[in-house]
Specification:
Length: 122
């Protein structure tokens, strides 16, 4: 159990630091659309879909490696809380169209990215 927790913690630290570094990229949309968080969540959705598909068709994956990647890296890298905060900020600032576009496209594209990754991994 302790080793599992360490694997998740190490992956989470890696994912969180990488997410922080991505957030430093100076990309801002004039509309206020949160491009960086949007991209991070789609990449994370693709990564988790890919790793689940690859590990499911091959035996011998270390369960701790899966914890490290799925729960740790993907959990630390992607950010539903930031997505929620940015969505609320857009709504509170009267950018309703941008908010709806962000919310709908994030959900649809993240699910699509996960599905695409599983198809590619097969």
């Amino acid at each position: 159990m302790l080793i599992d927790c360490l694997a998740v913690g190490a992956g989470g630290a890696f994912g969180a630091v990488f997410r922080y570094l991505c957030g430093l990229v100076p990309i801002k949309a004039e509309s206020g659309f949160p491009v960086i968080t949007f991209a991070i969540n789609i990449i994370g959705a693709f990564l988790i879909g890919f790793i689940v598909a690859v590990s499911g068709k091959r035996t011998g994956f270390d369960p701790r490696l899966l914890l490290f990647i799925k729960v740790g890296i993907c959990g630390g890298f992607t950010t539903f809380s930031t997505f929620s905060l940015e969505s609320l900020g857009l709504l509170q600032n009267g950018k309703y169209g941008c908010a709806v576009a962000y919310i709908v496209s994030s959900v649809v594209l993240c699910v699509f990215a996960t599905m695409a990754a599983q198809i590619i991994a097969r």
